[in-house]
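Hi, here's the filled form for the chain we discussed.

Project: internal
Contact: R.S.
Residues: 304
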Amino acid sequence: MTQAGDPSGELPASPPSTADPATTPDTTTADPATTANLAATAEASEAQFGPHRFYAGEGGGSEVFRDARFDVCDMRGARFIDCDMSGVRIRDGWLVDVSISGHLDNFTVNGVDVSGYVNGELDRQHPERVQLRRGENADDLRAMWDTIERLWAGAVERAGRLPAEALAEQVDDEWSFHETLRHLIFITDAWASRTVLDDPMPYHPIGLPQSWYPPADAAALGIDLEARPDYAEIFAVRADRMALMRRIVDGASDEDLGRLCPRSPAPGYPDEERSVIECLAVVMDEEIEHYRFAARDLAVLEAR
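And the returned structure, exactly as it came back:
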């Protein structure tokens, strides 16, 4: 029952107007076969900037590096954020201390498709992913929410042992613990209160949309992107939203889950029919994925 959600992420920076000749992409010697394959892929579908995006940002995302070729380039420390890298080929690369996250399918390393291994290992480390995928009825939803409550209770306990300032600290430019909880407030407002409960404007001012959500749209929802609430306020609102989800799943029946929700999660989201179970699955998908990110970053903060 997993449905795409809204993980955090920043738009890639615009490329500089002038380029260093040593690192300028050479598109004149691109492999014709590779270029043809990429062109066919591009014709088949629009670029996907991050696996959960529905909005590419102003200008639709840069295409300056499409079909580019980088020969003997020093790319140490480079970052690629929310980029569609379908069809990318790296040959004779030196990949040491490289970190990759995102949607993987037909991902080959040295001739070996590692997609199945990676997804299988994620399922082994995080069995809640499997539980969510297998959910089909109201009892499954209630059991899934039990798991989510248990996981986040453990994360909150760990966070409580850290200095207060650490909870507002970003690890490797990812969302802080504060920001993660604020985003999950927004997710509950958007995908439970607005869709399932049909509340037209349920958004709390401290909720945090995905980073690329248009600021003007967020302001129109009454969200203050400049707000810096303390942990006590964030925790109180977060607890209220978790209690709301508990009430929804406890009151749900199998018949309810197929009901179509009349509202989109927020202005700007694609207009499409979504069932109750699809909307609740988005909330739960976001909960388990952001728990995974939060647990990862809490370990870094604890190690310090």
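Let me know if anything looks off before we file it.
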